[in-house]
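Today's session is about reading a structure prediction critically. Students often jump straight to the picture, but the first step is always the sequence itself: look for stretches that repeat, for charged clusters, for runs of hydrophobic residues. Only then move on to the predicted structure, which in these notes is written as discrete structure tokens rather than atom positions. Here is the chain we will use throughout the hour.
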Amino acid sequence: MYFIKPIILVGLIVVLVDADTYLHFPRGSNNRLRENTANRNNGNRVFDSQNNNKGGYNVGINEAGQNGDDEEEEQYAMTYFQSEGGVNGAKTYVPVRWTSQHGSGGDEDTDPNKLNSNTVLQIMCQPEEDNAGNRYTRMRNGVSQQRQDYTQPQQRYDRTLRRNIYKESSNTFINRRNNRVRSDRVLQEPFEWYDKCRVRERNKGLFTADQNVKNDKGATATRQNPNGEQNRRGYECPEERDHFPYWHPTPWVDVMVYSKNASMCDYYGKESFNVKSKWECVENFNNGGTSHYSNFNNQADCTTGGGQWLEFHQNLEILTDATTEAACNAKKASHPGSKIIWARPINLNGDIRKKCLVQAPKPDCKPQPFGRVNHLGNGAGLDEIGYDMPLPHFPSGKTQICVLRERYNITTDDYDGYNIDSKSNGNGNSPVLNNPNAYFGAQKEMALAMNTAQFGRTFQDRSHKFRIVKRPAGMTQNVRVLSVQGKRGNIVQTYPAVEYDFVPRELKVNRQDLIHIQWTGSNTHDNNPPGGDGQTGDDGEGQGGTDRSNMLGMLNRLDNWPIPDDHPQNFLKHAEVKWSSYKEDTTAEDLGVQLASSGYFKSYDEVDGSLNNKLNNASPSFKGAIIRMKDRGTYHYMCSRNNNFSNRSQKGSIIVA
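Below is the predicted structure for this chain, in token form.
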């Protein structure tokens, strides 16, 4: 992505690399759904990843024997408890982990590992109950592996502007949308978001090198995607995808920036839509009523075209029970830990009235950590690059359906990418050309491999949907999520995904923290052909294609044997059970069999020998339990199925300070 100055609209160029990025936890889809092949079936299903077809993880599944191909209810969405409100309120931390194939690092000239890269984490949520049953807005993974359909609006000639513009009646729009949005297909950004992007004129102040970027495709045409909607990915807007911070309102809430230089953090904090309002043109439909899209991308053209240039604010949620400014002010008083304002949210449905908005906090920003080039991006500590993401607080208490997006870029010192703009476009002006010949010494011509559509690329991955729910009464401590990442296969077969592992591998807590244990997996990680240039196959224990995990105490991570639940060094002997999704009055003994059986047995008294010893008939998803560690110390655990000495290791530790 290009980090731009939104006032003068200049682009930051990123270097030509196949720098694929893969989200490992929460499970990144890389556009996969439930494929039993090594390669994904449809790289255009949801978003433009620019990644290898072989990466990504299938959607989580509820039970053994299910695969999620007919019923969405068979899919399991990881469920987390929201943070409390306020700066000092207890937080829930989710360990976000990813790898970027060509590494990461800062831009300091004194750094021998200089890599000039940036990473942005963003989240998009919606209240589950407010969108249930609405196929046009309800965020979902879908059961079909096809992308949603799209047809652009009608054009007509405007005599005043002397050009064609997009204009239709509200009824025509509704019919157009209703005929294209399918309930069985994935939906993250809504139809209206892509509609806005397709209609709005692209930003022509950006650097596009010598690429022939289409001028009749709206903001869907960029240097990286010059043909616009001909290469549509879901309902993602390419111009917004390729640039950060974006200069128009966006549905994505900024969470964190790993910046190539800490000096940029102040800029990102001020320009983020979380903090700074964005402006956009608003037009009407032919038959009156406000449209969600506009043809114009600036105030002058908007006014000339008869539109309104209006201010919009980002939000975590809209408090729908506060319908007046006075009622919204009352919400401020009752939720002092949240920033609540009376303002206009992003226009995705033609409603431009002001509402009671819960604003997102300023995004966190840190220097980009070092990641080794060509080693799937492992950091200096030999672990994946990551970030412990504090979940938001939603004052309404409504269950939220959310998706996480991770975007990555890597920049070059070949020229001043931060200040370059459209004045450098074209063969005669661009500092880089497509596959040029260069002259070196006695050799007349040496060919350079430069695709200027890719000489600066945005890579991304996204999670499948997950839930954020209200905390139970009395849960006032910080919550740390402990889970499983990876999928079935050996290291070559899973690449560029990873083998099974606990995440975080070493969880550091204090005695007041709560630990939320939960994981999910698939029944269709068979890794069949086609596999592109990678190896297919699904080496592992138990039934082919199935992800299974469990959690058993052990003495030392150098060992390969679990210890009994009543062993004095077993973590269960030092844990207080605070909550379980399986049984209201779960004891430590009950929790032991829940974790050992991946929820197959709910209590110690149920154990009857019916569980397959490779967990084949257990659920791929452990639905969750929360514990508090009572005693200081280091406690180790393992998975009995996936730990296979000299082949793979699935072990972890809880370190209690």
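Discussion point for the tutorial: The chain is about 10% helix and 25% strand.
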